[in-house]
Recover the amino acids of this structure.
């Protein structure tokens, strides 16, 4: 702890830590000091000089005004922020800054919320003494998210420092000198980073603004509502800026333990999906000839209730998106179970459910998000973490900068912005490498894990990794994480068992990276075949998400998902849905696959249109209110379920508010706390302890051919983000393609740019080949959830690849990825 | 952490022995050796100077990228250095560089008149190269010899108290 000293600012005595900068102390005390380049989360550049103040230390005044952002405090220091000398210096700086500024506020998107505008109101003159020609800077195209007007730039370098320090990609720089200095990439390139949009907030002027929002509204026309991001499991805190009934843009809301002051581009720009023309806006019923007929809600709900009432409860399969709200998840399972049904699940992208009985009731991160950055060694098993959880990746990067050793075990090497050890193996073989780490830690076990461990031969990488984990474990700062690529693996249960063995042997904690905004909440709500509300284990589990497809049901309810993009095996899902008697789709979007599959479509409110709760990775319950009315005739999901419950005459569906639903579940969770579920409201759970043994006898046989790696690219994970156009035009939005290691490709006679036919069982399509030495040999990375991937089979599983004719490629692409 | 010490943005996974030439690498290594190992990038200026000399007096983007890769720096950090300092040229140049100081002492001492003279007499404006490719005329920041303003640097050689006749003579002597 730094020594506490006391200083005086504008005559007020302030406590400060030795070494703190004057501006930090003043900010804490609420004493305003103008600034442009200083930012709490960035290194100090002290290049704008706007923060000049007068100061004296030890009774001796500094000869010149000093920059408050770069002057450390000392005992007895006296600071004047508004003395004649300080104000004069600040006015002088302002005049210099405005010399080259175009003063084009009326046509600038930042107008009305511009730091330069605000500060110049306070410190600027109304007449400029500068009559020479102003400089003009050519704009660069930084891609579909960020608009540039570089003539307005005041060279504060916040964006440059953000790139280098936070994003970890130093793409922007200040080239040239003096009059010719400019901020840019020098070589025109689109900025491709999952956090890039934060420079829009950082830029104190209108040089970097939001391209999708540009020229659509003025700051003073907007009202601001609080929200929670609906995509990853961070649950970033948001401000939704609204005009009339429309979300115009999204900004981060500071919450240090969750998202600090950042949000990912996915959270920032996915609002565009809300006004997509693919929104479902009225209840629909399919006529016998396949055309749609609009219904009023009353009729639609009675029709739906009749379908549910008329179905054998055991024949109802309820598949729900893991970013449905806690209230929706809770009411859905109550409704289904009230009817006597059992099959409900939100774990849509998984194939191996053998561990359900032994899993911790609520697999969660295992520690508070903020503690990620304080780990000393972390092993991440099966996660493309930058794509899955951008802000958790940022926390891990901070740990690395603080000298942590971070290792990854994945089916392909990740593009990272920090040093890390990366081990790779194709799906189904990750367990072999993890067993080698366990072996290096002298872990032993029975059954499948035991036989893999005893047969393992740790190479140097695994041995070093094991040592790091053990050393960190001794400090209580070691962690093993399991991500979405592990979750989709054919041998996920074995991976989990090995991860537990490694964590136990090294004294590390074990955590899960829950896939979506409410994955943890879904378990708490009991929207899982093996869990009841409060995450209580059930004696007689229902069918899991995959089994509902492989053992087809007569009636399906699809909640908030598109079957061809959100389910593990889209082809089998299509068959199962086609064979069902009735399919009810509750969705905010109207997609071709939903239209093909469903008999009834009920429009439910999307993100920002409904109240609800998300429980994030660290078990934090975050409740939010609806900020805008739902599109068209759509209704909040929880209300739809409430009315259905009442029509079906189920007990206890007379809720008067969503809050009441929330409170009921929260009380249940508090009760079951002792009963093994170990959950609590707003807090975190004590551990991720297994409830039993996985008891696997044999590892799966080694795959004898290529294995598909169907990763879910960053902007493909859910309906809303897929409907957001700007994100879909970024370089991070991956198209369907076959990525192969050069050796694998050579063995198949394929070269970069060739066309290849990829086949899973009967299902096949033609895709372009990309040679990529990041992919593990023996793996074929063909992303899931992207347009055209719906014709394929399991996201992770055997795949056959053969050279195809380039003309076939053109044909498939013309048909939007559908096979000819 | 500052952005100067932030870990590399671009991991250059190239084989360093394929960059530049063996001689250049040896020379650059000599400069790298003067700094602590984690401050390799301190050698960027001598490295750029060496590479520029080797390339007939100017730098291409590809050469800057190779220097970045060789010193494990983000490319843009090399562009920043190369665009900041007047001694690096990013476009083809003549056989010689005539650098006229434009800073305060030389300006008062008649540097502007020198530049105008060269433009009128030889048809070469600052930043341009003579048609015969003999020389490139450049404006330079203070050359550090203000006492004998105006100062002109021709390649590596200083000429002080230069007059119009003087600069004509200098030019005529160049090959
Ligand atoms: S673009 Fe904005 S953030 Fe970047 S240096 Fe210029 S004013 Fe600062
Ligand atoms: S804020 Fe202090 S110099 Fe810019
Ligand atoms: S001003 Fe020309 S040498 Fe210094």
């Amino acid at each position: 702890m730094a020594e506490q000293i006391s200083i005086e600012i504008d005559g007020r005595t302030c406590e400060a830590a030795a070494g703190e900068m004057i501006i930090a102390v003043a900010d804490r005390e609420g004493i305003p000091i103008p600034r442009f380049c200083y930012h709490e989360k960035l290194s100090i550049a002290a290049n704008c000089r706007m923060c000049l103040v007068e100061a004296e230390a030890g009774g001796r005044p500094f000869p010149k005004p000093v920059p408050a952002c770069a002057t450390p405090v000392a005992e007895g220091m006296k600071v004047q922020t508004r003395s004649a000398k300080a104000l004069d210096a600040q006015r002088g700086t302002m005049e210099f800054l405005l010399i080259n500024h175009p003063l084009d506020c009326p046509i600038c998107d930042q107008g009305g919320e511009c730091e330069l505008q605000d500060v110049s109101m306070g410190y600027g003159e109304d007449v400029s003494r500068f009559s020479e020609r102003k400089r003009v800077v050519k704009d660069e195209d930084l891609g579909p998210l960020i608009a540039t007007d570089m003539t307005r730039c005041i060279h504060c370098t916040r964006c440059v420092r953000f790139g280098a320090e936070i994003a970890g990609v130093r793409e922007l720089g200040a080239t040239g000198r003096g009059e010719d200095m400019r901020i840019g990439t020098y070589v025109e390139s689109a900025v491709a980073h999952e956090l890039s949009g934060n420079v829009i907030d950082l830029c104190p002027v209108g040089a970097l603004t939001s391209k999708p929002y540009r020229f659509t509204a003025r700051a003073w026309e907007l009202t601001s509502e609080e929200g929670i991001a609906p995509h990853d499991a961070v649950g970033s805190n948001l401000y939704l800026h609204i005009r009339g009934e429309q979300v115009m843009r999204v900004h981060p809301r500071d919450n240090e333990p969750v998202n600090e002051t950042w949000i990912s581009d996915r959270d920032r720009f996915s609002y565009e999906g809300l006004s997509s023309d693919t929104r479902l806006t009225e209840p629909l019923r399919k006529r016998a000839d396949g055309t749609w007929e609009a219904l009023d809600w009353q009729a639609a709900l009675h029709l739906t209730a009749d379908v549910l009432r008329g179905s054998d409860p055991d024949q109802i399969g309820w598949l729900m998106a893991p970013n449905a709200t806690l209230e929706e998840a809770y009411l859905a399972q109550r409704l289904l179970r009230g009817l006597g049904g059992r099959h409900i699940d939100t774990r849509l992208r998984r194939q191996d459910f053998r561990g359900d009985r032994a899993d911790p009731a609520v697999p969660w991160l295992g520690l508070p998000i903020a503690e990620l950055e304080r780990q000393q060694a972390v092993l991440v098993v099966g996660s493309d973490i930058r794509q899955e959880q951008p802000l958790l990746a940022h926390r891990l990067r901070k740990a690395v900068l603080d000298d942590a050793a971070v290792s990854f075990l994945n089916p392909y090497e990740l593009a990272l912005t920090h040093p890390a050890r990366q081990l790779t193996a194709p799906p189904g073989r990750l367990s072999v490498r993890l067993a080698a780490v366990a072996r290096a830690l002298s872990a032993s076990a029975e059954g499948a894990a035991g036989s893999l461990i005893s047969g393992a031969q740790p190479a140097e990488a695994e041995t070093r990794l094991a040592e790091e984990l053990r050393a960190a474990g001794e400090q209580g700062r070691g962690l093993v994480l399991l991500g979405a690529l592990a979750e989709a693996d054919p041998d996920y249960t074995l991976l989990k068992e090995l991860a537990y063995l490694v964590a136990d042997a090294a004294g590390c904690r074990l955590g899960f990276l829950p896939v979506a905004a409410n994955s943890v909440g879904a378990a708490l709500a009991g929207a899982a075949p093996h869990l009841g509300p409060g995450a209580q284990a059930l004696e007689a589990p229902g069918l899991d998400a995959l089994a509902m497809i492989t053992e087809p049901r007569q009636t399906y309810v699809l909640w908030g998902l598109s079957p061809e993009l959100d389910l593990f095996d889209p082809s089998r899902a299509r068959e199962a849905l086609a064979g069902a008697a009735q399919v009810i789709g509750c969705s905010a979007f109207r997609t071709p696959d939903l239209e093909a599959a469903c008999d009834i479509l009920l429009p439910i409110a999307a993100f920002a249109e409904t109240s609800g709760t998300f429980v994030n990775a660290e078990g934090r319950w975050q409740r939010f209110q609806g900020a805008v009315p739902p599109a068209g005739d759509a209704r909040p999901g929880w209300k739809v379920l409430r009315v259905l419950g009442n029509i079906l005459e189920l007990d206890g569906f007379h809720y008067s508010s969503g809050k009441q639903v929330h409170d009921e579940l929260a009380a249940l969770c508090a009760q079951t706390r002792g009963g093994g579920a170990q959950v609590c409201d707003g807090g975190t759970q004590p551990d991720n302890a297994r409830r039993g043994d996985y008891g696997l006898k044999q590892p799966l046989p080694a795959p004898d051919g290529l294995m598909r790696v169907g990763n879910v690219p960053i902007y493909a994970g859910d309906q809303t983000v897929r409907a957001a156009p700007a994100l879909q035009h970024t370089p991070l939005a991956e198209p369907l393609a076959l990525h192969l290691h050069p050796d694998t490709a050579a063995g198949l006679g394929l070269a970069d740019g060739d066309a290849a036919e990829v086949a899973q069982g009967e299902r096949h399509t033609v895709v372009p080949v990309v040679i990529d030495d990041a992919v593990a040999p023996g793996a074929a990375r063909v992303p899931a959830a992207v347009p055209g991937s719906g014709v394929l089979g399991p996201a992770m599983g055997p795949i056959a690849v053969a050279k195809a004719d380039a003309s076939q490629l053109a044909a498939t692409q013309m048909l939007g990825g559908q096979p000819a | 952490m500052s952005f100067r010490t932030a870990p590399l943005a671009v991991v250059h996974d190239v084989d360093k022995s394929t960059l530049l030439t063996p001689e250049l690498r040896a020379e650059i290594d000599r400069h790298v050796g003067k700094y602590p190992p984690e401050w390799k990038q301190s050698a960027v200026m001598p490295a750029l100077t060496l590479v520029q000399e080797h390339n007939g007096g100017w730098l291409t983007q590809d050469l800057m990228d190779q220097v970045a890769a060789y010193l494990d720096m983000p490319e843009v950090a090399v562009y920043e250095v190369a665009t900041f300092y007047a001694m690096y040229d990013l476009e083809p140049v003549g056989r010689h560089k005539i650098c006229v100081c434009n800073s305060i002492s030389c300006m008062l001492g008649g540097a502007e008149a020198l530049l105008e003279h060269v433009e009128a007499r030889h048809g070469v404006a600052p930043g341009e190269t003579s048609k015969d490719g003999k020389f490139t005329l450049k404006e330079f920041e203070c050359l550090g010899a203000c006492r004998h303003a105006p100062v002109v640097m021709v390649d590596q050689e200083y000429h002080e108290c230069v007059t119009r006749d003087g600069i004509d003579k200098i030019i005529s002597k160049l090959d």
